[in-house]
Amino acid sequence: MSLTTENDIAIITIDHPPINATSHAVRLGIWDAIDQINRDDAVRAAILTCAGSTFIAGADVTEFGKPPLDPILPDLILKLEQSTKPLIAAIHGNALGGGLEVALGCHYRIATATAKLGLPEVNLGLIPGAGGTVRLPRLIAVENAIAIITGGKPVTATTAHDYGLIDEIADGDVRAAAIALAERIKSYPCPTALIDRAPANAPDADAWDATLAGISKKARGQDAPVIAAQTIRAAVTGDAKAALGLERENFVRLRDSDQSKALRHIFFAERSVAKLPELAGVAPRP
Question: Does residue 215 form part of some domain?
Fold first, then answer.
């Protein structure tokens, strides 16, 4: 983790290979960097970026089941939203799960043309646990937010831009493009935090019922997609702050469920097998 400046632009760079996961050390580093930026009168805007091949590509799932260490990710994202200096997420590679939730806490988002963005938690029997179900439908159309969260598949930068999920697609180096964006917006007040905005749109009750029925049918007994849709509905139709609490409750309930534990076991087992040295260069049977 480093904090540097270029003139009056601060640059926070996360360097936590291989995927810059939001470990406790990363969360603490970002928290401290935001404090320094907000105290520095010479800084007028800030950029959050990552070293290596990717932006934050997920939460640190190895911390699941362990006592939480402050700052937890939901609190960190609230802090990002409350920054007194405009904050830009500069995305390359993947912004997935907790990584996209961090980007949603920033005031602006810019990404490379090859970037992928998504909330794939349902693939592990989970839902977003740091505000994704609340903030995303306040930034993009609710139906698109539902598709991203319950489908678990990332979208391209082009689709993200079309949806309004990112503000710009970088033409070349994303860091340089983010600095150029910071120069343009540094004189303006920070935009309203997503948590304080109204939903992008408000489907009626019949539309919600049809959507939930379709997701339930497609889920084939998986709990996470259905609970994700129900959580989004609560976030869109009710108070945003209360919805954050409900999201966290549902996340913890799913995290502790046998279904999610089984899916996570499969995920880690497949990753472990893929890393076995004796299988290097071995192709699957036709």
Answer: no
In terms of residue numbers, what domain contains 73? Answer: 2-196
Q: Does 272 reside within a domain?
A: no
Annotated active-site residue 97? The verdict is no
Q: Please, what is the Cα angle at 94 between 119 and 175, to 5 degrees?
A: 130
Decide if 139 contacts 173 (C-beta within 8 A).
no
The residues with which 129 forms a beta bridge, in sequence order, are: none
Residue 121 annotated as catalytic: yes
Among residues 45, 81, 97, 101, the one annotated as catalytic is 101
Asked if residue 98 lies in contact with residue 22, where contact means CB atoms within 8 angstroms, the answer is yes
Of 45, 46, 57, 59, which is the active-site residue?
A: 59
Q: At what angle do helices 240-255 and 258-274 cross, to 10 degrees?
A: 70
pTM of the full predicted structure?
0.93
Residue 272 CB neighbours (<10 A) = 9
Residue 177: pLDDT over 70: yes
How confident is the prediction for the chain on average, in pLDDT? 93
Quick one: pLDDT band at residue 200, thresholds 50, 70, 90?
very high
- Residue 273 in any domain: the answer is no
Which of 58, 93, 98, 125 does the annotation list as catalytic? Answer: 98
Total of domains in the chain: 1
Among 95, 121, 129, 235, the active-site one is 121
Q: Could you tell me if residue 36 is inside a domain? A: yes
Task: Supply the CATH number for residue 102's domain.
Answer: 3.90.226.10
